[in-house]
Specification:
The chain has helices at 39-46, 122-132, 150-161, 174-182, 196-203, 219-226, 250-256, 273-281, 300-308, and strands at residues 3-8, 11-15, 27-36, 67-74, 84-87, 98-102, 106-108, 142-146, 166-171, 187-190, 209-214, 229-237, 259-262, 294-296, 320-322. By secondary structure, it is of the alpha/beta class. The chain has two domains: 3-123 and 287-322, Alpha-Beta Complex (Quinone Oxidoreductase, Chain A, domain 1); 135-262, Rossmann fold (3-Layer(aba) Sandwich), CATH 3.40.50. The strands form three sheets. Strands 3, 4, 5, 6, 7, 14 and 15 form a seven-stranded mixed beta sheet that branches. It has a six-stranded parallel beta sheet with strand order 10-9-8-11-12-13, sandwiched between helices. A two-stranded antiparallel ribbon has the order 1-2. Helix 2 (122-132) crosses helix 3 and helix 2 (122-132) packs across helix 8. It is globular.
Amino acid sequence: MRAILFEGPRRIRLIDDVATPEIGEGEVLVRCTHVALCGSSTVPYTGEGRWSRTEWPAPPGWMGHENLGEIAESRCDDWAAGTRVLAHPRDRTGFSEYFVSRGEWLERLPSDAPDPGVFVVAQPLATVLRALARIDSVAGQTCAIVGQGPMGLIFTHMLSRAGAARVIGVDLVPWRLDWSRRLGATDVIDASQQDTVEAVRDLTGGEMVDFCVEAAGTREAVIASALLPRRRGRLCVFGVPHHDSQEFPWLHVTAAELDIFTSRGTVEATEYFGTAIDMVAGENAVLAEIVTPFLPWERAAEAFEMYTHPAEHEGTLKLTLVL
């Protein structure tokens, strides 16, 4: 079968001689039709931070986990061959033509969907739903989301739909801020031109925000996010850290008595797959618009460069490879 091979930092290629995996009891073999790139894949791709210690080459298919496909073989009750699914791949090897998943990690796609590829956004949406399930209502509150890539945009949309009175989108890439407004932000901050903390202070008259989501993972984004909540406000650190250890403003955070929680789990988010698919198919169909662009697998190397440098590739959001 075909798979994407990470040979080293910024060095990937498509290979076609990988053995098709075998399945065990309770598992299915999925033929991948679409796989999206994720921020958690781009830092390993560049080899930055903690990923500088990666042993190359990586296993074929490594780091792919936002997959749509069709069941090719099944040893799992209720999951027949030919069923189109959103699937979480075992061992995060979803950059492969075939991968193994389990029955509890699958959800059926709508049979009447005109473009099933847009449902790849249901996977990251499920991780956001899992994170937001842990917080109290934001109705009437002021929220900020630092990072307006695909994950940050999903948070922006969901907090807006949840009744937040004010949703502030923050990003270093100016064109993303238009999307932020499109998905529900009431205010945006161009962090390439403004100091994020001072800009939020000005927008809120010094009150700061009730709830902040960090959705970028960089050192600068984490620090800024920790400084945005009001006293006894809430902070969700969602972005995947680029380093094992990095600076954090603990003195400020403890003095402000912030409530902090982290959320990331992809396997755990599979329980939200059904809800996420229903949302994308229904009133939250605007989320499907961030699934762009679609590129063939043969352009995988180009796709990773585009995803890694969004400022130079306007319109690159939830970039999806199509087999």
